[in-house]
Design a protein that fits this description.
two-stranded antiparallel sheet, globular, 532 residues, 6 strands
């Protein structure tokens, strides 16, 4: 059997291919201008400003792609390293292992209940997590954050009799299906609608319908695959590779139930965290949670603080694992609040996870020196995925410095002249889908394509809302398969799934989503829809 190339090798091949492309595609550029979009300045394309420029074939720049990619994606790379180190500390306390064991034991006990025997409780758990992460992707554009959850859901899925692909699907894939069928995602819909000059988050009713359809398809697919693997684990394409995760599960099961005395440092950590939360509860009694164009004033910090104090009083007396699982729960809760209410991004989120990791290690009675060494071990473990993220970002630099991206956009825009509504919409959709392979950033792609595509929509008597929806689908689906996506490569690196194997497994599902996306575009052309 031919050996599958490593992810790093595949990305290197793509960088070389991108450099070769710059030798054959003419150089071209659009003029840019700064435009206010949703209260922020965005660089957009000036209509009719395309002009050919001196070509810039790339040669030795392929060797600097890694450096430039690291500089461009430094925030994401540091985020991955910090999260990897934080979870390594948390994992060293066996909190996640014991939590997964307790959950699996709970579901097994539930199966003995007569009234629950006909219900697949594990499938219900998978369904709940899938829908939740899809909603996160649809509402606030969860993407980078999914990397942090892989080390939770992959071992959980393997312990339940599934595989690592199932763990990736219920978190990463679900969030990105929601991202593609988003309703209120400010990073795609908000920017694209602002540049297109239509009301922000308009057409919400049909977008909710699209999200429901896409999430239902993803849910059926994930549950079908999970049931197939559970019935015969050897049918999993990662059965051999999952020995790492199965080994972790076995080691966790061999650990005796914690009987040791709770370290004094646990009470110290609990007191410090409680004090910090009381401070924020008094400073921010109400949080403005943004949903679309509206805001809700919610008393979140005081409620969470009260819950932390009550839960903590119980978990501190029980065990270190119980307390650290509580830490994980509240970390996720504050992550959601921070993103929705305070526009947190990777710096704030990585800081939150770092506090979680340090607190978990100190609460377990480990010395600060031991905690720091554990953190460094986690950073080393996650270093390869972080490097792949930087290298993948280098592909974009090759194409930009080769001045071929604008030429490709101009060629497609020119080809649409004279086409009918359906054909033009299809061409726009296909182009956005293919462009996402070389430009995974949704906000950058919106700034590049929306000024041109929205003008073509007016000439062809197509709703600008349709153009935004075509951009949204084209941006979202291929995020789950393109090797230029640092988030995808980071997720696969943490889950220890080779990119080539993931591609072979997921491409048919992505093709199905692309086809469904085109079908969902058609009603916007022929059926009166609110906001379209």
């Amino acid at each position: 059997m031919k050996k599958i190339p490593g992810t790093f090798t595949i990305v290197c091949y793509i960088i070389i291919a991108a450099a070769v492309l710059t030798w054959f595609v003419p150089g071209g550029e659009y003029a840019r201008q700064l435009q206010m979009v949703d209260g922020m300045e965005k660089e957009t394309v000036v209509e009719g400003s395309f002009h050919y420029v001196e070509p810039a074939p790339q040669t030795f720049s392929v060797f600097s792609a890694l450096f430039k990619g690291f500089v461009d994606k430094a925030d994401i790379i540091v985020f991955v390293l910090i999260v990897g180190g934080a979870f390594w500390i948390l994992n060293s306390t066996k909190a996640i292992d014991k939590g997964v064991q307790a959950f699996v034991g709970f579901t097994q006990r539930c199966r003995t209940k007569k009234w629950l025997r006909g219900i697949d409780l594990d499938a219900l758990v998978l369904a709940f997590i899938t829908v939740m992460f899809s909603l996160f992707g649809a509402v606030f554009g969860m993407s980078e954050e999914t990397i942090a959850f892989i080390v939770v859901f992959v071992p959980m899925a393997v312990s339940m009799g599934y595989d690592s692909i199932t763990g990736v699907c219920i978190s990463y894939l679900a969030a990105h299906v929601g991202f593609a069928g988003a309703m209120l995602n400010p990073f795609t819909i908000g920017i694209a609608q602002g540049i297109a000059g239509i009301p922000l988050f308009s057409g919400l009713g049909y977008r909710i319908f699209c999200w429901l359809v896409l999430t239902a398809i993803a849910l059926v697919f994930i549950l079908w695959y999970a049931a197939r693997v559970r019935k015969d684990p050897r049918k999993s394409p990662v059965y051999g590779m999952d020995s790492y995760w199965r080994g972790r599960a076995v080691r966790g099961q061999e650990d005796p139930v914690e009987k040791t005395a709770v370290p004094t440092t646990l009470y110290v950590v609990f007191g410090l965290l409680a004090t910090a939360q009381l401070y924020f509860a008094f400073k921010f009694p109400f949080s403005s949670i943004g949903l679309g164009t509206g805001f809700m004033q919610v008393c979140l910090f005081p409620v969470l603080t009260a819950l932390f104090l009550l839960w903590g009083a119980f978990s501190c007396r029980k065990s270190v694992a119980a307390f650290n699982l509580q830490l994980l729960f509240f970390t996720v809760a504050y992550l959601v609040i921070g993103v929705l209410g305070y526009q947190w991004y990777v710096m704030e989120i990585s800081t939150l996870f770092l506090v979680m990791g340090l607190s978990a290690g100190l609460a377990a009675g480990k010395s600060l020196d031991k905690v720091m060494n554990l953190f460094l071990e986690g950073v080393k473990d996650i270093l390869v995925p972080a490097m792949v993220i930087g290298l993948a970002s280098g592909i974009i630099f090759i194409l930009q410095e080769g001045k071929v991206i604008d030429t490709m956009l101009h060629g497609v825009a020119s080809a649409m002249t004279g086409l009918g509504e359906t054909a033009s919409t299809g061409v726009m959709y296909v182009f956005q889908t293919l462009l996402n392979v070389v430009m995974p950033s949704g906000s950058a792609k919106a700034a590049l394509t929306m000024p041109i595509m929205s003008q073509f929509a007016d000439l062809l008597h197509i709703s600008r809302q349709t153009v935004v929806l075509a951009f949204q689908f084209g941006d979202g689906f291929t995020n789950m398969i393109t090797p230029t996506s640092g988030i995808l490569l980071g997720v696969l690196g943490v889950a220890k799934i080779p990119y080539a194997l993931w591609f072979r497994w997921v491409w048919k599902f992505i093709l199905l989503l692309v086809c469904v996306g085109f079908v969902l575009l058609l009603p916007t052309l022929y059926v009166p829809l609110a906001g379209f």
